[in-house]
Structures are given as structure tokens and as C-alpha cells.
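note to self: the first set is below, dont mix up w the second
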Amino acid sequence: MKTILISTVLILSLFSLSTLNAQNTFGEYLSTGSATTRGLWHLDGNSNDVSGNGNNGTDANVTYSLTNGRFGQGAAFNGSSSMISMADVASLKPTGNLTVVGWALPTSTATNKVIVSNGFRNDYDPSWCWYFISVESNGYALFQMFDRRPSWNEYKSIVGTTVLTDGKFHCIIGTYDGNYLRLYVDGKQEAISTQWTRNLNWYGGYTSRPRIGCSSWGGGDNTQPGDWFNGKIDEVIIESRTWSDVQIAKYITYTKGRFGM
């Protein structure tokens, strides 16, 4: 009887361990996100959007592999021509509450390296509108929102305090609640803006360019990609709600293989 009991406990322990290890390997955000999830890219061998909105990406010089991922496969970007592009759609253009998530492992930060962005820039109108999270040349995370029409002052940038060039994946999250921008690294808030109550206005007639691995504007006509990311990216999320501290903590816990949001 004792032998049977010990064997049963051992089997259950091994099952629990294997389950935990599997969740640690594939600790992705819930497969289809929530009703406010505008885009969810696991980057497991492709750039398909599993949010239900159909915002699948088009890849350019992106390499997928298990060694490039934090959860299963991930994507490697070469810092000069790698990017994932999505179409200009309303679902990726939140006007109020916003959460942007990206797991990133930068291998070079000679200049600003954008993880995920959406927006446009027209110098003649002038109309600028965008949001992005990136890794700055000093190795810190940055979250910026910009809505210029006609004032130069309608933008906010906040910068983190953790150096991200340590050879490890880090979770960068930017949130906006209609009043303040907040920046989180690995679940901890590292920056908050002064009050900013201007929502994003996606002015008609301009094409926004959602992209992973580079900026949505640049070049001589401000339509070309720039700020190329050099390194690995996994798990990108865009939501039209503001994740709270509790939700972010729960998300980070889930990625360790415990439970979801």
C-alpha cells in the first residue's frame, strides 16, 4: 500500500512538473485575448493575428525559431530591413484607452529601436499621429504617444530605468488611461507622465502603418520604415483598454505558467 501511495504521489508530481514546464515554455497570453484586444501576435512561426480581428502581418526578412522566442518560437530582426507590416485598419487605431505590449531582447541599441508602432506623419499639413514602444540608444525602454495638429506640444514620452541590453527577454508595456501614460518593464511601473488628456486623432486621408520591428514613418516622404529593431521580439499585443497594475501583475504571473487574465 505504501509503495502504491509513493508511486501515485511521484506520478502526480511528475505530471505537475511537466505541466508547469510546458506552460513556462508556452506561457502566452490567452489564445484570443479579450473583446478589447485589437491585435495579438504570438509570432510562433508566422505573424498571424489571433485576436479575431484578422490583422495578419506581412513579413520582410524576419526569421522565426525557438531560439528567437521567449514563449515557443519568436522572431529575429536584423536591424536594417526586417519588419512585420499590418494593414491600415480602424481596429489598430484606438483613440482613448490604450495598452501596448512587446517582449523584446535587443542585441544592439546604436539608435532608437522600435518594437511595435502605428501612426503617420505629414509635414505639409502638418498632421502627426502615432504611438510606439521602443528601446532607446541608452538601453532603456520608451513609450510615446503623439497627436500634432497643429501644436508641437501634443505628445508625451516616458522612459524606463532598466537597462535592457543584458541578453535577456524583457516585457515592455505602455498604457494610457486618458490622463497619464505609464511604462512597465517586467511588470513593474518605471515611469508615469504628467497629465495629458489629448486622445489620438486619426485624421482622415492619411494612411497609418502598423509595424513590428520598426517605426511607422521615416524616409524622405515620411512613409518609409525607420528605427529598425536589432534583436528578438515575441508576444506583441495592442488593446483598446488600459491594463491596471493588478492586470499587469497577473499577466506577468501567467507568463510564468500559472494562470491567465
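second set (the one i keep forgetting abt)
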Amino acid sequence: MDTLPLMATFTLVLFSELGDKTQLAIVALASKSSALTVLIGAMSAFLLVDGLSLLVGGELLSLLPYGLVGVGSGLLFVIVGVYSFIRGDRNTDVTNQRATFLKTVSTISIMELGDKTQFATIVLASEFKSPFMVLVGIMSAFLVVTVMGVLIGVKLLRLLPERHLRILSSALYILFGIALILSGMMRL
């Protein structure tokens, strides 16, 4: 079995995602929600977006106008940031765990649509002609990055008062939203 596709993909994705906006979003989500729920939600989103990228390839990207996706995603992030700031609850019960899972899946999926990792997935799968090994490499790298983000978020939860975390998390969502809107507008 040739492990080059797995290792190349793992290395590329790991180093390109460390400190990326997606990892920061995972930190923000894990700082105020169940770590396990955020981990499962994020990994589900990565599997969804990158799995579809492998299956559909470049067709998926051509169906979605990247600029419009960026503006729409940015608006959603600003709304979530403002809502989180105003509402300010910490998710602890089962109903809120489901909401956390859905929020994590949707947040990470939106952030990954049209992201460099999605393009890398398509290119690497076609280059190595080994979509399964590419997917294993990508998911392994995302697992490492996600666990790191969740651990940082949990540590922040222990160190900072919940009010400060809520403000920080809300500010991150709003800033990411503005960045996505500006990036999307430049691509329209």
C-alpha cells in the first residue's frame, strides 16, 4: 500500500490549518460548549465538505459562486456573533448539545466551503489517484488540528470568566464574518 498520498496530504493540511480561521472557530466553540460535541461536530463537517469534494471534485466548486458564498457566510457569522453576545448561555443540557453539534457542523462547513483545503483535496486526489488515502490524510490532519483547538478552548474555559469568553467568542465570530464578507465582495 502506497502511503505517500496519506502522508503528503496529512502534512499539507496539518500545516496549512494550524492557526487557521477554522481552528480559531473551534477554539471559540469549545470554550463555551461541550468539547466532545464540538469535536464530533467539527469532524463531521470536515468529512462532509471534503468527502463531497472528493466525490464531486471540481464540479462542486463550480456550482457555488465563491464570492456570494463568502458574503452569505460572513453575514451568518456576524449574526451568530451578535446573537451569542446578546444571549450568552453556556450549552450544557442535551437539547443544547444538539444545538451545539448543529452549530459546529454548520459553522465549520461554511468556513471550509471554497477554502484552500477543499481545493487541495480535489487536486491531491486527482494527482495521487487515491481518493481514499487522501481522505484519510485529510481527516487525520483535521483530527489533530481539531483536538488542539478543543483543548485550547477547554483551557480558556477554565482560565477566563464565562462573560469574557462570551465577548471574545462573539468578537471572533463578528471579525471572521467581516473578513468573509470583504473577501467575498472582492471575488464578486
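remember for set 2: The chain has a mean pLDDT of 84.
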